[in-house]
Predict the 3D structure of the following.
Amino acid sequence: VSGSLLGPGPEFDRIRAIASGLGSRAAGLGDDCALLEIAGTTLALSTDASVEDVHFRRAWLSLEEIGWRATAASLSDLAAAAAQPIGILAALTMPGSEPESSFASIMAGAGEAVASVGGVVLGGDLSRGASISLTITSIGRAPRPLRRRGARPGDGLWVTGELGGARAALMAWKVARTPDPGARVRFARPEPRIEMAGWLAKAGATAMMDLSDGLASDARHLAAASQVALRIDLDRLPCHPSVPGEAQVVGEAPGSFAAQGGEDYELLVTLPAAFDRKPDRGLALTRVGSVEEGEPGRVIMERNGVPVTLTGYDHFA
Ligand SMILES: [Mg+2]
């Protein structure tokens, strides 16, 4: 991909094919946001689709939660670039049989999510379709944009918050169990880490991305974009409290379970080796590994010092 490099996987092979087909008609595909310099300001733009029966099932979420979740997922890409949200555009598709109030309910959730980080709903589009689909385009300002490239050998590798909660909820729903309430919140109302992202940028972060497909797969994109290798200690991952129980059900170690869990929307960030500050607010920041010279794009994950092979979520795998 021109201007940026992606890790392996069928979804990303499709992006590579699109980029090569577009050639010079595309600019720098493959980062969390498109960054545009306009009149002395850097604008950050990102778009994200949330599709019924692909990203969520109606039985799992309220309409407000469907709106919140889709919006938070899109805003999370602004966080990845350390951008401050201005607002969102929403393209909403719903069956014609839906009452009028359903449209307002979904958009109430979307509005609440964007307001939680200081933005507004700027506009959108409605369409009739077979099922619910909500595509959110987020627009922000990025005075000090971070990208997936920029990690240097010797940097520390860190994650915000806790991982694996959204996957824990998903695993419970998939076998018709009621998820742990805390895990359900992680899936239904993820929080875009906008404020933390700004703090990390000021603290000297060298590269950043958000975790949408799971650490095991997302880390490869940061490693590929930065042309470095990453070493991750799975025993150090900050797991959501619901993870040990769900991991045991599927016979995985908690760290492996959390590393393969998508949709936590936490941040993966590299910081200079000497960094050891604590963020002022409640959100955790945990060092999980390091940046190394080595085969560009390689991610070595270890448990008890032994390398293990894991995968994340790929839409087309
Ligand atoms: Mg992203």
